[in-house]
Amino acid sequence: MRIRKNLARLALLAAASTAGAGLLATPSQAAVNSAVEIKVESGRTVLVYTGSDNANQLRLNKEAGGVVVVDDSVTLTPGAGCTTFVDSTQARCSAVTEIRFNLGAGNDRAAVQRTFNGEIRGGSGDDTFALSYADSGLSTLRVIGDAGARDHADYRGMGEAVNVTLGLGANDGRPAKNDADFVQVEDVTGTSFSDTLIGDLAANQIKGLGARDTMRGGAANDKIFANDGNTETQIDCDSGLGAPGTADTIVVDDRALDSRINCELTERAGVE
Questions:
Q1: How many domains does the chain have?
Q2: What pLDDT digit, counting tens, does each position of 149-201 carry?
Q3: 10 Å Cβ neighbour count for 135?
Q4: In this structure, is residue 10 part of a structural domain?
Q5: 125 domain-assigned
Q6: 152 belongs to a structural domain
Q7: Which residues contact 47 (CB under 8 A, 6 or more apart)?
Q8: Nearest to 171 by CA among 200, 142, 145
Q9: Domain range enclosing 24
Q10: 64-88: per-residue pLDDT in tens?
C-alpha cells in the first residue's frame, strides 16, 4: 500500500513539474516572428510582409535588379523567394516589383528608404512611417495607418520638399519627382524644406520643420506646429474640408511672426 501511495505522489509531482515547465515556456511562445515571402499575382512579383505582434522596428531598402532588403527588430522568417541575410532579423528577396506590408499589432515603426510601388499598412497600433527616399525614382506607395489612433507620416529624413494632402488621392510625396503616394494617417511631419501639408477629416497634428511651409488643417480640432523659427507661407487651421473644428491650436515660437487664420487657440514653445 505504501509503495502505491509513493508512486501516486511521484506521478502528481511529475505532472506539476510538466505544468510548471509549460507556464515558464509561455513568454517565448508569445514572441511571434515576422514573415516575408514572394508571391506571383497576375504577373506581378509581390513581396508580402506579415509583422509580428511586437512593436516592430522595420527598415526597407532596395538594391539593383529589384532586390529588396528587409531589416526587422525580431526574427524574420523567410519564405519563397527570400533568404536570411546577415542575421535572423534580415532577409533579401529577389525580383520584387511590388510590396504589400502589414505591420501587425503593436506601435510599429517602418523606415522606407527607397521608392516602391505597393502598400504598407500599420495595423492596430500607433505606427510611424519614416519616408526618406534616397533615390530619384517614382514612388507610388499607399501608406495606410489602419486602426491606430495616432499614426504618423514622418518626412524629416527626406532630402527635398514634399506635398502631402492626407487621405485625398495619390498625390503625396516629392513634387519634383512626381511621386504619386497615397498617405492616410492622422499626423504628418514635413522636411527642412518648404512643404505643403494639409489635413483631412480627422483631428490632425501637422508639423513643419524648416523653411517656409504651407500648413492647413481640416475638419475636427487640429494642431499645427509652426515653432521652427521661420515665417511660414500660410497657416490655416481649417482647409474647408468638412465641418471646421472649434478648438484648433497653433504652436508658435517666441518670435510669433506667423500670420494664421481659423486657429482658436495659441500655444508658445521653443524653436524645434
A1: 1
A2: 899 999 999 999 999 999 989 999 999 999 999 999 999 999 999 999 999 99
A3: 11
A4: yes
A5: no
A6: no
A7: 36, 37, 38, 68, 70, 81, 82, 93, 96, 98, 99, 100, 118
A8: 142
A9: 1-30
A10: 999 999 999 999 999 999 999 999 9
